[in-house]
Every structure is written in C-alpha cells, then in structure tokens.
C-alpha cells in the first residue's frame, strides 16, 4: 500500500510542476499585458495634455495681430465699395460676400432676399482693431477675422416717428444763424490758415445726424412737456453741423469744384432731399461707400459716427484735415 501511494504521488509530480509553471507564466503574462496597455493606450499622469487654452478666440486674435503687424490693412477701398454695392442690391442677393483680413471670403445669408417690404435695413457693422485682438467679438467664430460684417436694424419704430414741422424752413433759418455767428467766422479763418494754398477736392461728412425726424417718445416723456420748439432744439446741432460743412466747402472752392459728400445710414428721405438741395451728394447709405472716397485732397468731418473713422482713415489715406469730436488716442481700450 505505501508503495502504491508513493507511486501515485510520483506520477502527479510532473503535472503539479506543469501547473506551477502555468500559474507563474500567467502571472507574468498578465503583468506584461497590463504594462503594454498602460504604455500604449493610456497616458501616465505625469504626461497629461490639456488644451483648454487653445481657444478659437485666442488663436484668431493672435492671427489678427500678426497680420496687422505684417502690414495687412483692415479696410480697403475695394472692399468698402463692394459691400456697399451688395447691400444696395439686397433684394436680389441671397447672400453677401465679406472678405476677412486674411483674404478669405465668408458668405452671410440674406434673410430679406426678395422681401418686398422689409422692416429690417442691412448695414455695415465695423469690428475695429481692438475687437479683433483684445475683445472677443459676439458673432460666430468665422467672423473673428472680419473687420466688418453685415447687420440689420429694425425700422418699424423709426418709421413711425413723424417729421418736425417745416424742416426745410427751419434748416434755412439755422443755416443763416450759423453764417452770421462769430463761431462761423472763427472756423473759416482757422480752416483757411490750416489748408493754406493746398487744393481741396472733397469735403466728406460722416455721422452728422438726421435733422428731420421728431424725437423718440422716451425722450419726450423724460422732459415732461414737448412741443415744436423742443423738436427744433433737439435737431439743431445736426443742422449746424451740416451748415459748417457747407461753409468749409464754399471756403475751399475758389475757382475749383469741391464735392460735398455726406454719409449717415440714419438719414431720412426728407433729410437726403434737403441736403441734395444744398449741394450735398449722399453716399454710403449702408455705412461703407463714403469711406472709399477719402483721399489726400479731402477734408473729413466726423461727428458721432458709429464706425471707427480714425482707424479707417489710417488704412486708406492721409486727408488734408480731419475735424472730429475730439482728440482721443487710437487706443482707448486701456
């Protein structure tokens, strides 16, 4: 019996050894596979890569800064003329083409395509330098490199506002008041001294304001009482600004023809009619075409334009004289 038991144990020894080898091999094989998977499929904690700082806005703003530093212009005459022409044909345009500062073109769909009586008016919305490099634009990512885009303003409330009483007569009265003022004489002397014998061929006006539309209801409510005299006082500044432009154009004419151009998307048809009678030519009704007229033989008058007039001028030309609302630096974002 002991011999039989010993024989049985001896016969199991190779099997037990084999099982031991299998267990040992399996243990090391599992470890090897785990290391392999960890090495090739997963990143170890000390090598985790985070890209949360690589936002579209940061990349775009750096691109805009690089382009501008290399001499790329934000605005060109060709682009301003082109977009003005497109918006002027908005009824037949199903989309507008806008050139970004890197030269690429984006297409903006026109919601008013073949709309007969639109209550929305397309206009140019400018994105000046600091919006491209410092303050993130509010539009889609594709517009981050656009120095201008297309926007629409609702005209319903604007069109419900009536005109002031007898705007042509009021304009004539305020124009005469301006011509007889000491300020007019002082301005004429100053402008004459500044331009000297240089030739001026254009006087360009931007954002001088509409002077025919009555005040909005919220303004009337703020004052408690409102009458026709209040309406005139409200637009008198805009009238005087246009009279000032007329004076400067007359001063520069001499024996030469001097164009008197005005751009303000807020003009009413009545204001445009009166200005035309006063030898103005209305340009850029959508807010872009007038800037394409700026050159070295022009005088620019800018009051309260929504566009970044100084930056646009810097890219286009060096006009002989700029009359604006102040001497703010180009960098007003600091």
TrEMBL record:
<keyword id="KW-0472">Membrane</keyword>
<protein>
    <recommendedName>
        <fullName>SRR1-like domain-containing protein</fullName>
    </recommendedName>
</protein>
<keyword id="KW-1133">Transmembrane helix</keyword>
<dbReference type="Pfam" id="PF07985">
    <property type="entry name" value="SRR1"/>
</dbReference>
<feature type="transmembrane region" description="Helical">
    <location>
        <begin position="12"/>
        <end position="30"/>
    </location>
</feature>
<feature type="domain" description="SRR1-like">
    <location>
        <begin position="196"/>
        <end position="330"/>
    </location>
</feature>
<keyword id="KW-0812">Transmembrane</keyword>
<dbReference type="InterPro" id="IPR012942">
    <property type="entry name" value="SRR1-like"/>
</dbReference>
